[in-house]
C-alpha cells in the first residue's frame, strides 16, 4: 500500500502540476509551487519502521532475525 497523510486544506489547495513534498515522520506536506506548508498527523515510529522495511512481511522477517 501507499502511505497516506490526510489534510483537507492541502488537498483543496493542490492543483494538477503542483509539486508537493511530504515528510511522513513530521506529518508535513509542502506545496512547493504555492510556498505553503500544511500539518497532518505524523506516523508513529513503528509505522515508519514498517514502511522503511518495505511492508509487513519484510518488517516481520527483520524482527524475527533480530530476535534470533
Describe the overall structure.
The protein is of the alpha+beta class and about 70 residues long. Helix content is about 40%, strand content about 20%. The chain is built from three helices and three strands. It has a three-stranded antiparallel sheet. A hairpin with a 4-residue loop joins β1 and β2. It is elongated, with a radius of gyration of 15 Å.
Which helices and strands appear, and what pairs or packs with what?
Blueprint: H1 8-13, E1 20-23, E2 28-31, E3 36-39, H2 45-53, H3 56-67
Antiparallel strand pairs: 1-2, 2-3
Taken from the alpha-carbon principal axes, the silhouette is elongated
Q: Strand fraction band?
A: 15-25%
What is the spatial order of strands in the main beta sheet?
A: 1-2-3
- What's the main sheet like? 3 strands, antiparallel
The H/E string reads HEEEHH
Computed structural class: alpha+beta
Q: What are the segments in which pLDDT stays under 50 over at least 5 consecutive residues?
A: none
How many β strands by DSSP?
Answer: 3
What integer value in Å does the Rg equal? 15 Å
Termini separation comes to 28 Å
Figure out the total of helices: 3
Fraction of helical residues: 25-40%
Mean pLDDT over the full residue set: 93
